[in-house]
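Go through this one:
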Amino acid sequence: MWICKKCNEENEDSFDTCYKCQTFSEEGTLKSKENQQELEKEEKKEVIKEEPKENKGNLFISLLVAFLTFIIVGIATNFSDEPFVKIIPAVASYLVFRLIRNKK
């Protein structure tokens, strides 16, 4: 319970203003500020959590580029029996594309 400084009315702790004269309590004002700061911190955390979604898109696009490189090199070499002829360019294109996308 807290007592209003203006009208001396007793109020519940859950109230941040006096129910009789609508005067703000000092404790209620501090609690409101603390609650607002906590909400702002939570919003910042949510923004940080959303960033990795972009990285998932980068991974998908990088793998797609590597796969297309693998197919194109396979066609260009008439699907040679040498596995490294197709794999090395695909891996290189994947790594280069990831490097370029991560720098942005």
